[in-house]
Amino acid sequence: MKSAGYNPPQRMMDKCSSWVVMAAWVCLVPTAHAANWERPAADLAKQIAAIAGPGPARLVVRNNSSLVSGEVPAIRRLLERDLRGFGVIAGGGDSATLIRITLSENLHGGLWVAEVVEGTETRVTMLPVGLGTTAATGGPSLTLRRNLMITETEPVLDAQMFSVGGVERLVVLEPERIVTYVRNAAPLVAGSEYASWIEDQHFGIGHGRPFPRDMRGELVAAGDHSFDAYIPGVLCSGTNTGAQIAPACADSDDPWPSGATQRGFYNALRDYFTGVLAPGFGMELAPFYSASDIPRPTGTGMLMGGVDGKVTLIENRVLKPVSGANDWGSDFAVIRSGCGSGAQVVVSGSGAAAVGDSLRAYEIAGREAIALSAPLAVEGAVTAIHAANDGTSATVIVRRDGPLRYEVWNVSAFCN
Amino acid sequence: MCRRFVISGSGKLWLTERGLPPRLKPGSFRGSYGAAEAVPLQIRNLIRHFLACLLLASAALPGCARTRPHYGGTLRIETEGDPWQTPDGIARRLVLDTLTTVDDGGGARSALAVRWESQNADHRWEFWIRTGVHFQDGTLLTPDAVAAALDETCSHAGAACPWRAAHAVGPSVIFTSDSPAPDLPELLGQTAFAIARQDATGAVVGTGPFRVTGFVNGALTLVANDDCWAGRPFVDAVEVRSRRMVRDQWLDLSVGKADIVEVPPELVRQAQQQHLNVLVSRPVDLLALTIAPDSAMASREMRQAAALAVDRTALYNVIFQKQGEVTASLLPEGLSGYSFLFPSAQDLDRARALRGGTGGSGLTLSASDTSAPMQLAAERLALNLHEAGFNVQMAPANAHQAPLQLRRVHLEAGSPRAAFDEMLLRLGQNGTVTGTDAAALWNAERGILDNETVVPLLWLPRAWAAGERVRDLRLAVDGEPLLADASVEGGK
Q1: One-letter-per-residue 3-state SS of chain A
Q2: For A60-103, what is each residue's pLDDT tens digit?
Q3: A404, B125, B188, B189: which has the fewest C-beta neighbours closer than 10 Å?
Q4: Per-domain residue ranges for chain B?
Q5: What is the pTM of this model?
Q6: How many CB pairs below 8 Å do chains A and B form together?
Q7: CATH annotation of A9-129
Q8: Assigned CATH class of B97-205
Q9: A279 touches chain B (CB under 8 A)
Q10: Contact B31/A279, CB-based, under 8 Å?
């Protein structure tokens, strides 16, 4: 009889291996950080040696940047080692030469400044250095994960994958143009499953009247051609000519798809849908920002985020207020994850854009929105959320400042 | 069930059920939830009572969800200065546009110019002008109009334009300059180079998001420009009440008579302690002592002595309440990354030694404005100079003949190189940057400061306090509020 007190051998192996992984991670992470500074330390040491010449020197390193102080000793060690390689021996306390290194930062990133002081003369050399960032997330019963697809300097309204002539393309909708990308072999972010993209084609979007200031747009898969791009007052159809795309744009006030069977009229001078749906539900609806089909036990409902901030659910032609959605932003997307009830709502979170935004997955149980994931911190402001074409993930557009750029993230939900 | 057919502009027929016509006048949508209409009155009263309680309870909670900006409403702003003053008058920015704008990263982005190209090693620039843009009086914006507006700007006395000539050629405007102007796109984003013209009545009109409609009871009123090329602003109107004392501005904010008010740097801490919603910019105003290199201060040693005598820390700690940063550089540390290389500590012994034992003739010191902190700062500087042996008398504010001037110089540029060039223009200095890296800029700046005619003292931020109904208010790179992108609660 097997004793219940023992773990099966496989579990022990798992635990053991996880400890090994953890120990390796603890050991390797500082090394990995140090490795990030290998190149700049070597470059700066070379520059210092060029103006100081060989010999003993006092080395002072101070941190004036956003680098965590724990990284400074590692950088100092690297600098000492590299300077030694050029014949500059750091550490002579009574040396006449002082090398003062300031790990500074400016608008473009890190700036390492070395001052070589000999008597009354000070010589200066500088080295621009990249500063890296990291992020991590987690959640109670479901975890949101994000993968960076592409970063643009122009505003992005939507981005979706379409297959054109057997070639998978990333189509990016901007206010003034549509850009298509094809895959590049090298990944955009090391370790990411997503490929980087190479610009393939771009097309200008002509429009007769100014666009609204809070610009919105959607890319939707079309039946008889690749896609339709809806932007205020303009409809572009992306048709394929062989392996290429040939969009045709025209002024249009046709309603935009709002779920599988409904279309919503968009106010082309503002940033919301008028509340008029075609064919509609037999009731008057207030203007809304977002609407999406959502699976319900009784069939398919429609979730709507009103201009007044209220979230409502239309189910069996009855309009029901949804509670627990007070901290929802204006945009959301319904995705099929396979977790929980199978469908979750990914919403932009609360908080001022200046301190960063967040994403969170909810389920609608009855008339209540229940958070299923922890908030996924977003460094920047979420400007749009759209369900991806296959419905299993969401495309999230994030505006980041300093320098201004727009990141396109693919956000998926994973069961815990 | 009531059904309705809607024909969209493309001629397609759309069937809606009890729907509103899709092309109602913007802002007129007043749809109510059909189901809610059926709720009995007592329940609705109960709900109202509950919501009122909830509202009171939520007053203590942090900010609500980030939602898209709402349209409508009037934004009321109060300022101490003239809203039309150059270069940073708040109304000028609402009415006029520039060829480019500067983003948070300091880069130039397209505005009235859609693209640009440098030729002849940055001596010649071509800017293609956006088509289909109209001035607020209906006149079409053309390259000729742009060139004429810029000529008018440069013809003003004291105007410093970083080009020799600007002329229209086809769809673009060509700028030529004697020396390379690598950062011209960034410099053209400054409000000093905004594009304006006079309409038939002589009033200044632009292509910006608002147009002036009048000046009534001390308030300048501007209304949204529906045809603005960058999109209609979210609020319907902006009222700018100028020449209001800061104390009165805060009072108006507290009683809901103002939405956005100024917070001088020395009062930022106090505003935060009073729990005002304060937005503080990065350092954008340089407080600097300028020394005329003539008469008593003709020698570099004398100017250097004056520079070493000033106690920046006292200005920072006492007068400006630890806002901004102590500096001896023409650029803020966050922009250049090297400003610490310029020593900023007071050294009275060395100052006295450099000045020597000569009695010297009297000097006068004047502040560039009459504000209390500037006067206090000028008096403190005079005291510092006395300690170093200088005979300094205070002159009234704006006494331009005074050899020592305490100036507050505003910075609009967002990139180190453009900021350096802008500071040179504003301070009337000449300098050349040979190279594109930080070291080249530092060398050029060192060359300017070695002359000791400009003594940077402090970099100060700009700050604004916003009322509870203001949403999505952000500050531009130069610390001015971006009012066209802000909205107010209660708008549609």
Answers
A1: CCCCCCCCHHHHHHHHHHHHHHHHHHHHHHHHHHHHHHHHHHHHHHHHHHHHCCEEEEEEEEECCCCCHHHHHHHHHHHHHHHHHCCEEECCCCCCEEEEEEEEEECCEEEEEEEEEECCEEEEEEEEECCCCCCCCCCCCEEEEEEEEEEECCCCCEEEEEEECCEEEEEEECCCEEEEEEEEEEECCCCCCCEEEEEEEEEECCCCCCCCCCCCCEEEECCCCCEEEEECCEEEEEEEECCEEEEEEEECCCCEECCCCCEEEECCCCCCEEEEEECCCCCCCCCEEEEEEEEECCEEEEEEEECCCCEEEEECCEEEECECCCCCCCCEEEEECCCCCCEEEEEECECCHHHCEEEEEEEEECCEEEECECCEEECCEEEEEEECCCCCEEEEEEEECCCCEEEEEEEEEEEC
A2: 999 988 787 788 899 999 999 999 998 988 876 778 899 999 99
A3: A404
A4: 97-205, 284-462
A5: 0.78
A6: 220
A7: 3.40.50
A8: alpha beta
A9: yes
A10: no
